[in-house]
Amino acid sequence: MQISIFICLASGESAFDRFKAEFQKIIELVAENVRKGGQELCTSIGHFQFDMGIIPALHFIGTKCRWLLLRRKVLAILGSCYWREGLFDSYRSYRCIFHVMEAEEVGMNPGLISNAAELEEFASYLPPEPLRVYVVTFGPVPLYEAGQQLTLLLKPNKVFNAPVYFKTTIPASGKSPPLEPWFTWSP
Fold first, then answer.
1. String of b and e for 53-62 (b: at least 16 CB within 10 Å)?
2. Could you give the CA distance from residue 64 to residue 151 in angstroms, rounded to a whole number?
3. Which of 22, 56, 77, 109 reaches 20 to 30 Å from 48, CA-CA?
4. Residues 6+ positions from 135 with CB-CB distance below 8 Å
5. CA separation for the pair 74, 53 (Å, rounded)
6. What is the pTM for the complete model shown?
7. What is the pLDDT of residues 98-110, one digit of tens each?
8. Which among 59, 71, 56 is positioned nearest to 24, based on CA atoms?
9. pLDDT tens digits along 24-73
10. What span, in angstroms and rounded, lies between the C-alpha atoms of 39 and 81?
């Protein structure tokens, strides 16, 4: 919440870049929570709960934090087990963040990383402002449909010019797309 307040008047998405330490701390706390009781979260409480726990925070970080390794840590946590918190679904948030990541990392080819030096260089890269996703919206899930519409709003022609909308459909269930083989971190 504080991060949103600090950047509310910023004109670009790069304003989120200065909160790397805060994003890292939130991810560490969530990963510790999931390590200690993640499976209990899914089994003892059930796959659905009304409380807003960690999925909304991870969804926010996954769509606004462009630090590539941190975003993949968010995906690893969300993909570790299935649960719902109110309107938030861990697997659906995973798929949404995965599509945002693909849109913002277009042309980077992170799958070609073969050694630690390349990983270090890759980890320090931040997408330029024209490639950043400003708004992510989910469409309704039609009854008996296998997918949900996902709309990404980008502003490739500067902040105050007309936006570009990218629409796709994400699966409502099933396996999530895998992360790169070089990313081995787990919560």
1. bbbebbbbbb
2. 15
3. 22
4. 151, 152, 153
5. 14
6. 0.85
7. 999 989 888 676 6
8. 71
9. 999 999 898 888 765 565 555 556 566 667 889 999 999 999 998 899 99
10. 7
Rounded CA-CA distance 141/147 in Å is 7
Q: How far, in Å, CA of 58 to CA of 120, rounded?
A: 23
Q: Which element (helix H / strand E) includes 144?
A: none
The position carrying tokens 């994400």 is: 170
How would you classify residue 180: left for phi > 0, otherwise alpha for psi between -120 and 50, otherwise beta? beta
Asked if 100 and 174 touch (Cβ cutoff 8 Å), the reply is no
Say whether 165 sits in a helix, a strand or coil. strand
The pLDDT confidence band at residue 181, using thresholds 50, 70 and 90, is: confident
- Residue 5 per-residue DSSP state: H
Q: In this structure, are residues 164 and 133 in contact, taking their beta carbons and an 8 Å threshold?
A: no
- Written as one string, the DSSP assignment of 39-100 is HHHHHTS-SEESS--SHHHHHHHHHH---HHHHHHHHHHHTSS--EETTEEHHHHHHHHHHH
